């Protein structure tokens, strides 16, 4: 069994987005998030890092972001303490994007991530 938690933790701690994206390219979101030892802090860090410039590598980033919300556990202390801030920052970044509405894929995909983040905040972190 792959130790995705350790691999992503190391990539995320490097703060080099390209390293994180390279790892994301090699691991399907479903494989990562279904990993039994995946820590909530890794999911939050991944959301934080992938939220940077969503108009670059939009599909890869948004595939991970969309799936991440299904695996965030609001009952975990790290999610209660940091989740709202991380997700609000993601929403703010999306709101600040200059997303071309004529690029239907990017526009819809990024808006869906915003909707999921806002919904998670409102349902679990108020």
Protein architecture, described:
It is a single chain. This protein is mostly helical and 126 residues long. It has one domain (4-125). The chain is 72% helix and 0% strand. The chain is built from seven helices and no strands. The chain has helices at residues 4-13, 17-26, 29-33, 40-50, 58-71, 77-96, 104-124. Helix 1 packs across helix 4 (40-50). The N and C termini lie far apart (37 Å). The mean pLDDT is 94.
Helix content: over 70%
The arrangement of helices and strands along the chain is HHHHHHH
What is the tally of helical segments?
7
Oligomer category: single chain
Largest sheet: none
Number of domains: 1
Q: How large, in whole angstroms, is the Cα Rg?
A: 14 Å
Low-pLDDT sequence parts: none
Question: Which overall shape is indicated by the principal axes computed on the Cα atoms?
Answer: globular
Question: Could you give the count of β-strands?
Answer: 0
Strand content: under 5%
Mean pLDDT, rounded to whole units?
94
* SS class: mainly alpha
Q: What is the straight-line distance between the termini?
A: 37 Å
């Amino acid at each position: 069994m792959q130790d995705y938690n350790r691999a992503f933790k190391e990539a995320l701690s490097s703060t080099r987005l390209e390293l994180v994206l390279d790892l994301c390219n090699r691991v399907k979101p479903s494989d990562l998030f279904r990993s039994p030892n995946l820590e909530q802090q890794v999911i939050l860090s991944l959301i934080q890092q992938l939220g940077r410039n969503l108009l670059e590598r939009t599909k890869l980033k948004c595939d991970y972001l969309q799936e991440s919300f299904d695996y965030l556990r609001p009952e975990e202390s790290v999610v209660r303490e940091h989740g709202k801030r991380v997700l609000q920052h993601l929403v703010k970044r999306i709101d600040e994007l200059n997303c071309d509405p004529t690029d239907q894929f990017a526009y819809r995909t990024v808006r869906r991530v915003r909707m999921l983040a806002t919904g998670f905040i409102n349902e679990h972190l108020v």
